């Protein structure tokens, strides 16, 4: 765990960023917020690319900024690697030339070049120039360039936002590999939850320049009063479970968490491995009695822990506890009234196997 302590104020026209937090970064801390929430401004201040009249930044015991004491460590001395929405490669240099440029400006020990190239699958691209690369390849080169100088902190500013869906699918495994192989504390900015639920272990939510939520991804996703995680296409929760076995004939994976058994479509991980399952709120149904004779395979005893009604929409969100883990359920307000659900009520949560996939 690496500690990042920040106390920052920055005014840009009518917008102001005001954030004071101690961030304990284990692997990846995701930063979520709508456009204009201050995500990129925060990263640029951390990198030293922008300055502020008042502020403090301390990382791993080193002070990068303290306006009261007149301390400002310039960007090239902060040991930070940064990847922007667009790759920003030097167009006149080859891939190898771009990587050499970063390595030549590194401070201290560099990451082994062969490991970086292998992690990002760049061995066959070294002689090519950026104009001859796909969007996904350019972002992989940009990430390799950020890694070359062995940064102490990695800042990723929506690295997948400029990529189409094909490139996103291509890039995510490389991002996972980099995170697992090099264990560099990382701040990952996104304006949608998809990448963050797959990569981050913690989540900070910004709104109009203020921190409105901070915690594990699991904790933040089930905050019913947080609109940033409540979108119709994104409202979800995370279950962590252990793989117990596979059914090769039906292509299913069986998992256990607490005293519950869960079936998952596809063959995922090896028995004994822990996996993280994102469950969309619209894929969960509630039954008052244990059903029989239905196609839904996952029927989990649960307890209602919270209810939030959105009177301006047809929907309500219900939070249920299943063996110490929380599931978010989205239903119509009409269904909520018909079931007459109340907090502390015992129910059954129904999850279609076909709707579940491991992150």
Tell me about this structure:
It contains 8 helices and 21 strands. It has 2 domains: 2-221, P-loop containing nucleotide triphosphate hydrolases (Rossmann fold); 236-358, RNA polymerase II/Efflux pump adaptor protein, barrel-sandwich hybrid domain (OB fold (Dihydrolipoamide Acetyltransferase, E2P), Beta Barrel). The protein is α+β, with helices and mostly antiparallel strands and 359 residues long. Helix 4 (135-147) runs parallel beside helix 5 (165-182). The chain has helices at residues 39-47, 95-104, 113-120, 135-147, 165-182, 193-199, 217-221, 333-339, and strands at 2-12, 15-25, 28-32, 54-59, 62-66, 71-72, 80-83, 153-157, 186-190, 202-207, 210-216, 236-247, 252-257, 260-265, 274-280, 284-287, 298-309, 315-322, 325-332, 346-351, 357-358. It has a 6-stranded mixed sheet, sandwiched between helices. A 5-stranded antiparallel sheet has the order 2-1-4-5-6, with helices on one face. A 5-stranded antiparallel sheet has the order 14-13-12-15-21. A hairpin with a 2-residue loop joins strand 18 and strand 19.
């Amino acid at each position: 765990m690496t500690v990042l302590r920040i106390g920052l104020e920055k005014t840009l026209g009518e917008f102001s960023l005001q954030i004071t937090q101690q961030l304990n970064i284990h692997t990846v801390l995701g930063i979520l917020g709508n456009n204009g929430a201050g995500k990129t401004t925060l990263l640029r201040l951390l990198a030293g690319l922008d300055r502020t009249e008042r502020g403090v930044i301390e990382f791993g015991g080193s002070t990068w900024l303290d306006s009261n004491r007149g301390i400002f460590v310039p960007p090239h001395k902060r040991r930070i690697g940064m990847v922007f929405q667009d790759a920003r490669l030097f167009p006149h240099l080859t891939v190898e030339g771009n990587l050499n440029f970063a390595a030549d400006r590194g401070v201290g020990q560099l990451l082994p070049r062969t490991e970086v190239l292998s992690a990002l699958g760049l061995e066959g691209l070294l002689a090519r120039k950026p104009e001859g690369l796909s969007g996904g390849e350019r972002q992989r080169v940009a990430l390799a360039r950020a890694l070359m100088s062995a940064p102490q902190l990695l800042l990723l500013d929506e690295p997948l936002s400029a990529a189409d869906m094909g490139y996103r699918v291509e890039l995510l495994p490389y991002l996972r590999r980099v995170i697992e192989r090099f264990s560099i504390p990382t701040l990952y900015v996104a304006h949608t939850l998809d990448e963050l639920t797959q990569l981050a272990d913690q989540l900070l939510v910004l709104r109009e320049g203020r921190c409105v939520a901070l915690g594990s991804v699991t904790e933040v996703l089930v905050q019913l009063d947080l609109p940033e995680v409540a979108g119709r296409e994104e409202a979800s929760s995370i279950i962590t479970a252990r793989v117990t076995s596979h059914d090769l004939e039906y292509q299913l994976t069986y998992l256990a968490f607490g005293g519950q058994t869960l079936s998952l479509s596809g063959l995922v991980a090896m028995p004994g491995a822990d996996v993280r399952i994102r469950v969309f709120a619209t894929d969960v149904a509630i039954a008052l009695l244990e059903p029989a004779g239905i196609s839904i395979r996952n029927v989990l005893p649960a307890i209602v822990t919270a209810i939030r009604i959105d009177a301006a929409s047809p929907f309500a969100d219900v939070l249920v506890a299943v063996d110490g883990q929380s599931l978010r359920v989205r239903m119509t307000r009409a269904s909520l009234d018909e079931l007459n659900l109340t907090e502390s009520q015992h129910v059954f949560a129904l999850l279609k196997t076909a709707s579940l996939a491991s992150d």
